Amino acid sequence: MPLDITESLDWRDGLPIPQWDIVESWIESRCAPAERASAWTSASRQWLGELGPALGFDGGDDAGDSSYEQIESPHFLALVPRGDPWGRRLLPFAERCRAALLATLQGIARFDAQGKQVVLVLRDIDDYYRYVSLYYDDGEHGGSAGLHIREGRPHVVLQGADAIERESTLAHELTHAGLMHLSMPQWLE
Asked: H/E/C letters for each residue in the chain?
């Protein structure tokens, strides 16, 4: 039976957050070790397939339409604004960052996520803060252009229209992803 994460989705503020512990149990119990990375990527694709339309929903009649699309590379799976020219350059840049981190921090940096690393590029500050608020308590928080979210399935979230800012933020957040296994304070990373 193929993996279907639909029943494991927890909907908060109209956005799907998978119960990753349930997904992990399913994958660990039903997939051979050699199949697990593929199963994790499939689960992530399904999640982004639900998240894109939920973020893109503007209350109109086309609730199934999305202003987001999924793109993939050998190590990354991303949700990007549809038609954003930087979105197509994102993954080659992410692959170069990953390679540079592994070479520069040889024996230190490690990308442990099973399956592909997920990156969300949200089209505006409203979508960004709506999404990241799912992972942070109410209260005062500083502004940001990106985050490496470690809860559940670790992933990177970016916002901002400036391509140079997005690239430097992505490089910064991928550094967090590559050093996460060391359990250091994030400020030290």
From this structure: CCCCCHHHEEEECCEEEECHHHHHHHHHHHCCHHHHHHHHHHHHHHHHHHHHHHHHCCCCCCCCCCCEEEEECCCEEEEEECCCHHHHHHHHHHHHHHHHHHHHCCCCCCCCCCCCEEEEEECCHHHHHHHHHHHCCCCCCCCCCEEEECCCCCEEEEECCCHHHHHHHHHHHHHHHHHHHHCCCCCCC
Amino acid, res. 150: R
pLDDT per residue as tens digits for the range 74-110: 999 999 998 888 877 899 999 999 999 999 999 999 9
119: part of which helix (H) or strand (E)?
A: strand 117-122
CA distance 178 to 189: 9
Give the model confidence (pLDDT) of 40-80 as tens digits. 999 999 999 999 999 975 444 444 557 899 999 999 999 99
Q: How far apart are CA 80 and CA 87, in angstroms?
A: 6
pLDDT at 162 over 50: yes
Range scoring the smallest mean pLDDT among 34-38, 56-60, 185-189? 56-60
Which residues have CB under 8 Å from 82's CB, separation 6+? 66, 67, 68, 69
